[in-house]
Here is the input.
Amino acid sequence: MDDRTGGTRSMETKEGDFRTRTDICLRCPQGCEVRTILGANDEIMEINGNRCKLGREYVEQEIRDPRRVLPTSIRVRGGERPLVSVWTPEPMPKGMLLELAKDSRKIEVDAPVHVGDVIVDNWRDTGVRLVASAEVLAT
Here is the structure.
């Protein structure tokens, strides 16, 4: 299944009280297909298919607390371009991505904007920052 809010591919099958989940690890260039068997209460029973410890860590994170970085853009007033690219340098809870994406549509800043400018410092008291990743000079 293609996950529209987060960039990982995962497939699941269910047999009785157990679920088998297959994820493609994104932590290194190997792209291991990691198979996880989950118990009735989503406890991890078995993980295999990873060629390094990063695969195991990746899948455990995906199951317990999936996080993503959000790249998007915001409006710029008085700039040489109408938009500037921004991102969340720290991964945030995957379930909050769409919320922040919607909120970012309401944000508008004045030019100039420089790489590294913090646009939002603590979005909704979550500690999530929105930071400029491009330059927009004033006109």
Observations:
- The first strand starts at residue 10 and ends at 15.
- Residues 48 and 101 are 35 Å apart (CA to CA).
- The chain is about 15% helix and 40% strand.
- Residues 10-64 form one domain.
